[in-house]
Amino acid sequence: MNFFEDPAFIKKLEGFKMVIKNQARGLRFGENRSKNYGHGLEVSHLKNYSPGEDIKFIDWNASFRLNKTYLKVFSQTKENNIYIMIDRSASMDFGDGENKMETKYMKGLMLAYAVSYVCATGFNRVFLLEFSNYILRSNEITRNNINIKFNELIRNNAGGNIQASGSGGNFDAGGINMRRTLISKSLHDFFVNFKRKGALFCISDFIDSDLSVIENIPKIALLHNFYLVHTVCSDDRQIPALGEFKYEDAETGEFIEVSMTPAIAEEYSRKFNGFSAQIAGTALKHGGNYIMLNASDDVFVPLKEIFMKSVFYA
User: Fold this and answer.
1) Sign of the CA dihedral 51, 54, 60, 63?
2) Inter-residue contact 290 to 279 (CB < 8 Å)
3) The whole model's pTM is what?
């Protein structure tokens, strides 16, 4: 059974939606008031009626109460685009324990589903994109197709084997390895194909050869409200302090042999923490948000933090 077919998960998500609605005081994603006035869904203000104006917009209650004819003026609402990019490179297949739901990818997908579920209402358009070294596929998510689309993602990714249109296995039709991460290239594809501003969630372990997410944050900030979700597992945060180990790079297939010492393990942890802090600091500097999502986390903890950030209600 997929996580979104679990009644307990959906019940908790529905309860979360109610909390968000109450705390946001009725303002949902996409319900951003514009400065243009017209025949929108909510009354912006009243104005004196002038002869020749459409009488169907007269506020009769106010007019009788104040003994003067008033006309309703409606504020237009703006459609808000929500973009969710999730990393599908090979490094996302690692996790904690033997629970297949606790890989970095599956935990990121649970968070992507939860964000989509909450946002795919009102005046929001939700786009879910998988990427590795480019955008592998994109789907528009609605309340009617959300379970179908996420079921397709899980089926296509079964066993860690991704499939793209016109290809099979881990390589595309041009022989390019789709399991490697190239964040700069993937973001370039995103900017080219999705030009409307919106809110961008990028869910990734941010592991690529250039650690390029940091250099791309200023460009992201120019175009979108954004949230960087750093998916990690215990092996990302800390490595063994003693022993002889042979590691394989899941994305390149290269092997490296290492004699571990406490000093090497400590240096690794220092660099990992420094990298995470640099992402967080750069995101904050440019008006964005950062959260670390552990493969063993309850997704409702970071979900609450995400939706309580006022940037998405601006």
Assistant:
1) negative
2) yes
3) 0.76
